[in-house]
UniProtKB/TrEMBL annotation:
<dbReference type="InterPro" id="IPR004304">
    <property type="entry name" value="FmdA_AmdA"/>
</dbReference>
<feature type="compositionally biased region" description="Basic and acidic residues">
    <location>
        <begin position="1"/>
        <end position="10"/>
    </location>
</feature>
<dbReference type="GO" id="GO:0016811">
    <property type="term" value="F:hydrolase activity, acting on carbon-nitrogen (but not peptide) bonds, in linear amides"/>
</dbReference>
<dbReference type="Pfam" id="PF03069">
    <property type="entry name" value="FmdA_AmdA"/>
</dbReference>
<protein>
    <submittedName>
        <fullName>Acetamidase</fullName>
    </submittedName>
</protein>
<feature type="region of interest" description="Disordered">
    <location>
        <begin position="1"/>
        <end position="29"/>
    </location>
</feature>
Length: 370
């Protein structure tokens, strides 16, 4: 389904960096896995000390998948993208990458060894700049999945909606994704803000199993749009060295990700990785189960389960644990506070494992922390 042609000809195309760049991890056939997530047996693509800032290139699966022809030059060319504006690493992975079709669609970059990390520790990942690598992306509905599998796609097994991004050269804050009202319509587009984040961030799991991308205690496809620049994600370390990886880059997503994908598009991510030792993690955060995060505005517990009701319940329990550990709040009062003041959101409903997260405003606890 053709959308609008790219209009922002001044936006840079961030091709892979050349030459030696310290702590830069490109996306290549050797530094990525496609369809499944790294496990303990996978050799590190990069090894760093805690506290290191990394630059990691990610590649979107949209435009390179088998049901799109596995040829991004042709796929994006049909939507008006010049061959030189297609990423070289996407072309290479589409041509030669080993896609495990028993898993998911995502290409993840890693694993990255964080030296000294041990099971029981927390890996703290602070998200820095998330730079769009191209001024376009794709939203796809396929294979009778998503929120309304009986209704979409309307015809066939896949609908891929191309989305151009305007004003990207002016910065992410001013950029807008564009969609037409009808296929082929070039006038009066719908415009919406972009807010980049990485849908997949996680740590390696014990050998020998490579998990598919749905989220779990290891992280994975958590799809929380609040995890943009400035956020810190905490991941329970599963194996020595952590084995950190990222992927599923998004330019924008609504909570729920109802059509199966968000606005999928590649990012260059600046990330700082650190380790919170097990004893310190327990003292600071208590017995929280699974990933959680903090931004400048919110404390963000998560809940993950195949049953959405159970996922919300798990999120609530983690929220009460965090309120008690971080702020010293009694459980019954934390329960009341959550009901009166916190928002529980659906992260995504399109994975086998559903995701929820809560937004606890840090400003509500200013007097406590003071």
């Amino acid at each position: 389904m053709t959308g609008l042609p790219p209009r922002d000809e001044t936006a840079p195309i961030l091709q892979p960096l050349t030459g030696h760049t310290p702590n830069y991890l490109p996306a290549t056939g050797k530094t990525t896995t496609w369809g499944r997530l790294p496990c303990e047996d996978d050799e590190p693509a990069l090894s760093v000390e805690p506290g290191t800032t990394l630059v990691v290139d990610t590649v979107s699966h949209e435009g390179i998948l088998e049901d799109q022809g596995r040829d991004p030059v042709s796929f994006f060319g049909a939507h008006g993208v010049a061959a030189g504006d297609v990423l070289l690493d996407a072309i290479a992975i589409a041509a030669d990458g080993d896609h495990d079709l028993t898993g998911g669609p995502h290409v993840v970059t890693g694993p990255i060894e964080v030296r000294g990390a041990r099971p029981g520790d927390l890996l703290a990942v602070r998200v820095g700049e998330l730079a769009p690598r191209v001024p376009y992306g794709v939203v796809s509905s396929r294979h009778g999945k998503g929120l309304l599998p009986g209704s979409f796609p309307v015809a066939g097994e896949i609908t891929s909606v191309f989305c151009a991004v305007e004003d990207l050269a002016l910065g992410v804050g001013k950029a807008r994704g564009t969609l037409p009202l009808n296929p082929g319509d070039t006038g009066r587009p719908v415009r919406f803000p972009i807010a980049p984040f990485l849908g997949v961030m996680g740590v390696a799991t014990p050998a020998p199993r490579r998990h598919s991308t749905p989220p779990g205690q290891h992280g994975g496809n958590v799809d929380i749009r609040l995890l943009g620049t400035g956020a810190t994600l905490y991941l329970p370390v599963q194996v020595p060295g952590a084995g950190f990886y990222v992927g599923d880059p998004h330019f924008a997503q609504g909570n729920g990700e109802v059509a199966l994908t968000a606005l999928e598009a590649p990012l260059r991510a600046t990330l700082t990785v650190d380790v919170v030792p097990a004893a310190e993690a327990r003292a600071r955060f208590g017995a929280v189960v699974g990933p959680f995060a903090r931004t400048g505005e919110f404390l963000i517990p998560t809940g993950l389960d195949e049953d959405l009701d159970v996922a919300v319940e798990k999120c609530g329990r983690n929220a009460i644990t965090l309120l008690g550990s971080v702020f010293g709040m009694a459980p019954e009062l934390a329960y009341a506070y959550l009901s009166a003041a916190a928002d529980f959101d659906i992260s995504q409903v399109v994975d086998v494992v559903k995701g929820t997260h809560a937004r606890i405003r840090l400003a509500d606890f200013e007097e406590v922390t003071r």
